[in-house]
Amino acid sequence: MTDWNAMSDADFRKEVRGFFEAEYPEELRNLPHRPKFAEIEHWHRKLHAKGWVAPAWPAEYGGMGLNAAKLLIFYEEQQRWGVNRGRDMGVQMVGPLVIKFGTQEQKDYWLPRILSCEDIWCQGYSEPGAGSDLANLRTRAETDGDDFVINGQKIWTTMAHDATHIFMLVRTDQATPKKQQGISFLLAPMDQPGVEVRTITTLSGETEFCEVFFDDARTPRANLVGELNKGWTMAKALLSFERISSGRRTWLKMHWASLRALPVDGALLKTLSSATVLPRPLSMSRIMPHSIRVSPISSSVAKRWARMSRCSRSG
Questions:
Q1: Which residues does 95 contact at the CB level (< 8 Å), separation at least 6?
Q2: Which of the residues 6, 76, 225, 310 has an alpha carbon 20 to 30 A from that of 262?
């Protein structure tokens, strides 16, 4: 097993860059949309065979075990070559949570399936009336023997129509004095009676967001991660994992450069004022080049990564 952290940063960057440039399919570079798994499966198989699916996971669980400095290099090279992140909610969110809070049985079962993408995940958080105020969620799960029975609705669920499983926050106690209490974190299969997925078409014509309806859907009680009614703790921990992968400065710089290059003219404004659904090449991220300021964000991300890198090097 290679100790990537023992390599110099320059040698590691050369290794990662060489692999991406030699092996990543040209037709998948800089995809303008979120691909379904079938579209990128052949690339995922290459990553899995090399052991590079989960760069941040500890090596004992099948990851690369990268420290913060090496992880930043990996992400920078990934973005520089236009490598798609793939269906990585399992790797970026579910896996780290199971590693930190899951039972040994959950680790043994779920982690290999996440790495192989035998299970593909979506996130069941937001609900109508419970978006920014997530603790206001009303989807409930009640015990029935060895199962939880789930009823309710989730919305803005990314790529739910291409997922085999969902990780979700549900209310398991209706009588708590604080709404952050009485919430639990469950893993549930999507392919079952009682789960209905409806896609949402955005202004750009994409259908990556979905509504998910639960009508007496079931999941085993063994799929509770962490303690019952302690899901708010899970949610806060997961948010920290998500931030690591979302604040990528190379990605921010690339898109800021694209935004600055866009002309703002009468034809564009006319298109926006008359169209109910925008032409596919025109996405919302390209409409308001003067309303987004990425440079300060990029600077903040770089400082955060530098602090993490110093911590990892000092042990």
A1: 54, 57, 61, 110, 111, 114, 115
A2: 76
Q: Please report, as a single letter, which amino acid is at residue 221.
A: R
Q: What is the average pLDDT score of the chain?
A: 84
- Closest to 133 in 3D by CA, of 180, 188, 88: 180
Residue recorded with tokens 């206001």: 136
Active-site residue list: 242
254 φ/ψ angles, rounded to the nearest 5 degrees: -60, -45
Residue among 241, 212, 218, 70 nearest 137 (CA): 212
Under a CB-based contact definition with an 8 Å cutoff, are residues 188 and 226 in contact? no
273 has a pLDDT exceeding 90: no
**Dihedral, CA atoms, 190, 192, 196, 202, nearest 10 degrees?**
30
Distance of alpha carbon 12 from its chain centroid, rounded?
Answer: 25
Does an H or E element contain 167, and which? strand 165-171
226, 199 Cβ separation under 8 angstroms: no
pLDDT tens digit sequence for 17-31: 999 999 999 999 998
The pLDDT tens digits of the residues spanning 110-155 come to: 999 999 999 999 999 999 988 778 889 999 999 999 999 999 999 9
HSE toward the beta carbon, residue 33, CA cutoff 13 A = 17
